[in-house]
Amino acid sequence: MEALSLRDDMSDKSAAAGQNSLQLIAFSIGEQTYGVEITTVREIRAWNGATPLPNTREFVRGVINLRGTIVPIFDLRARFGDGQTAPTKNHVVVVMSVGDKWVGILVDAVSDILTVNRDDIHNVPEGNAIDTELLNGIVTHDNRMVGLIDLHAVVTGAKMDG
Amino acid sequence: MTLRVLTVDDSRTILAMLHHTLSNAGFEVLQAEDGKQGLDLLKAESVDVVITDINMPVMDGIEFIKNVRATGQHNSLPILILTTETSQDKRDQGKAAGGTGWIVKPFDPEKLISVIQRVVH
Amino acid sequence: MSDLDDFKATYFDECSELLTELEEQFAAIEAGERDADRLNAVFRAIHSIKGGAGAFGFSAMVGFAHAYETLLDYVRDGRVELTDEVVSLCIRANDIVADHVNAAQSGDDLPADYGADEKARFDALARGDSAEDEEGEPIEDFDIEFTPVMVNLDAPASGEAPVEDAFEAPPMQAETGSWEIRFTPHRALYARANDPLLLFRELAALGRMQVVARLGEVPPLSDFEPFAVYCSWEITLSAPELSEAAIREVFEFVDGDCDIVIAQAGSAPFAGASFEDSPAVEAAAAVQDEPDLSSLLALTDDEMNGGPLVADLAEPVAPPEDFAPEPEAAPAGAQDAFEEAPALSFTALAEAIQPAPPPQAAKPAMPAAKALPTAGEGEEGHRSVGVQSIRVDLDKVDRVVNMVGELVITQSMLTQQMDETLRARYTELVRGLEVLAQTTRGLQDSVMAIRAQPVKSVFSRMPRLVRELASKTGKKIKLETIGENTEIDKTVIEQLSDPLTHMIRNSADHGIEDPARRLAAGKGETGTIRLSAEQAGGNILIIVEDDGAGINRERVLKLARDKGIVAPEITPTDEQIDQLIFAPGFSTAEAVSDISGRGVGMDVVLSNIKKIGGSVHVRSWTGKGTRMTLRLPLTLAVLDVMLVKVGGGPYVVPLSSIVETMQCSRANFERVPSGGRVLQVRGEYVQVIDLGQRFGLPNAVPAEEQFVVLCETEGSQKVALVVDDIIGQQQVVIKSLEENFERVDGIAGGTILGDGNVALIVDVQGLRSTHIHQNAA
């Protein structure tokens, strides 16, 4: 299992960036690009299976063992309502800290690190309920639309109702 | 030469606070939880000054001081009594037993250091 | 965290131990054991709590604790009689002190008159106002206006240190600066290790000083007594604004051990018949230098090390028994010894009174000295010899526990790898692995024992709780505790407090009837709650039982139906109804009292217990009482399990729950009207739960090839779990699911297998309970 640890680099990069800019790690689900603040990311791993959890929603992929700690994996595609991912070794799990917990997000691929200006971030347009629920904003970078993920929203609502 | 202090008190908190203040001031600190432990420690270690509480289990401060003086080996070892008592009574008892001086609890760190310096070369 | 916070944390830790001790000691005192040791112990406990409170500035606590401490002092002295009233007063006072400590810890304030009644009673008792008239021994007015001095450990105090109030002489003419001091030390001054040289050093720092030593009293050597004092000194000291008080402060410790006369310069010239006609010796008249009296002082000081000055101390004390024997110049007759040798020359005298060798050199000569212990934490300095325990950071213990856990898994995995062929070929290897397994197991037990502590610490909070509950509900309740010395892993103990509290509250609120009802039912007025802890197999059993009215099953069932927890057509058994009190959101209290109705119910108790791998079971007898049994694992970390497969994924079932396993093709399944399945086992009908279905997983294996794992849960109820495959026994390390996720129904936690994959622990008890509410099995 490959693991990239970004933690050490991160603080330097954030320090280097100016006050008004934001550093993101961008990843893709199909044709869509999404990003999260680089400071939340702890690790990037290749997909290597997960133990499924019963009685959970379809976007909860299961749990993995991360150096002795059990970490849940969320299928981001499924979270956006686009069906379940059929992951292969080429898929990627981005391990992030959300509040005091660590969670993993299953994505197709990680693209790069972007620096965007906070002023360029727009509100999410009304219309798509899921987008409004799960995104904090939208920013354009290099002619791409990048959706900023609201991590807390992604990881809530994971249990089966009833 | 680093001065060595033996602190004798059954309260963890007091021992910790004494340790903090004294080691910051450059002393080497030894600790005991009651008079008997203090006495045992003195058999094996040499110290330059002793700070002891009065109320302790097993062997209280007064007995401890009496026993230290009775050995005959520590006649010029300054022993300071830690007391929260404002009454004269405990201090007199301590002095009668052979105590050198006293420090009132809760202790002011600067005062503690200056009292020690007053009784140690 | 600042240092002050660290000390506060230590203090609150210590307070909690002291409060527990107070509770225990007073329980014994109440039962009639009132020996001196106990009275001293409780005095010291309050004394320590008060001391720390003063240091951190918890003034409300200090005032109360001081009054309490004074009373305890008088009690242990015999000045105040320890009547039953006083004992009850003290027990109440302990609770008040505990409240103060909690308030201080959380930063809250208690009402200003909190404990005022008790404090007033303490003051009255101490003054001697008791029911009976006392013999006229006047009890001194003690100082209630005691003002604590708050300590700032971090910043050095700016300005002057407060002046001690130990002076006798009022400051006269405070501001003019020239003084004459006559100082004659007594023998006792040296006996207490005070040193005139140090006094002069301190005086010299106050101003310009001149010292003259008067040696007129020094006798010829033939009459010379090494322990007597022959010198006195006249000192002039001046500095602008030098007060007499400042000078007296220097002599504070030697007050009474010397003759001291302080006068304004010129007002009382140095007179004193004994000195006028003796040759004055000018000692060094240095301005700020130390007076060079060391040569003169050397004789009087160093030879003191030759023997104990027992005669000068208040009471002669025999030297401690096992101490090394003295050099020859020993006991209180030293004076006589020298008078017998009148004609010694100075050299001979000097040899005879050799100063004792400096302590460092003396070390090897002391037969009683033991080797220096280096055990314990380096940060805390030395601990003396003979110490029974050491303090270790819990983090360090946890690390060891974790590593041993990993070791257990690895060893388990190694054993697993041995298939039949390897076993046959490498018998030595097999044997070696078996020994490894045994040793690892032993290591694990030992390591877990390190973290194990008696449940006493949790149990000790309960008596107070019961007292409060009794008084709030107006019922009479007695608490019995058994097995407080049963040991449990420290981390489990911490989780115990809340559930136990809830269960006891439940008993007090719903179980025990009020006195009138009890009498009407033919019971004693006082209800009993019994709290016990025992080891049973690989578990700890903690039982909370009461002799109250039992669970009102009609009401419980009705409420459950109303809340939709139980479907209308289902008729639960008595035992199932009892377990309903653990259902989420359940509360039968019509008037939600502020005791048990704080928005949390028994379901929280249950989930907390489950989190630590335990289970709760309740049994009730109408009119007779209720018993709740907490079953907890002995060790948190490692679990013996059976590894199974369900829907292609790995799951584990705690071995302690498993009765037997069998193949489905052999099993005797039958359908029941409600749609579920039961299994007939030796005449018994057991509920069947298909894990694949329950967990929403596809069946990987055809039905006949599945396996049944027969489990026994609380109350000897059995349940049959259907799984795809049974792999084998394993030891696993329990890991929390909730740390990064949340609780999942039917799952008790996670484990990491030897191959690094996560396997989920099946929550057998939980599955069984929720099974009532589901139609399909």
Automatic annotation (TrEMBL), chain A:
Q: Please provide, in alphabetical order, the Gene Ontology terms of the cellular component aspect for this entry.
A: cytosol
Q: Which residues form the CheW-like domain?
A: 21-160
What are the GO BP annotations of this UniProt entry? chemotaxis; signal transduction
Q: What InterPro entries is this protein classified in?
A: CheW (IPR039315), CheW-like_dom_sf (IPR036061), CheW-lke_dom (IPR002545)
| Protein known as | Chemotaxis protein CheW
Source organism per entry reads: Devosia elaeis
TrEMBL record, chain B:
Q: What is this protein called?
A: Two-component system response regulator
**Response regulatory domain ranges (all copies):** 4-120
Source organism per entry reads: Devosia elaeis
Which Gene3D superfamilies does the record match to this protein? Answer: 3.40.50.2300
Q: Which domain of life is it from?
A: Bacteria
Which SMART domains did the record assign? REC
Q: Which residues carry this modification: 4-aspartylphosphate?
A: D53
Question: Which keywords has UniProt assigned to this entry?
Answer: Phosphoprotein
What are its GO biological-process terms? phosphorelay signal transduction system
Q: Does the keyword Phosphoprotein apply?
A: yes
The transmembrane residues are none
Q: Which Pfam families match?
A: Response_reg (PF00072)
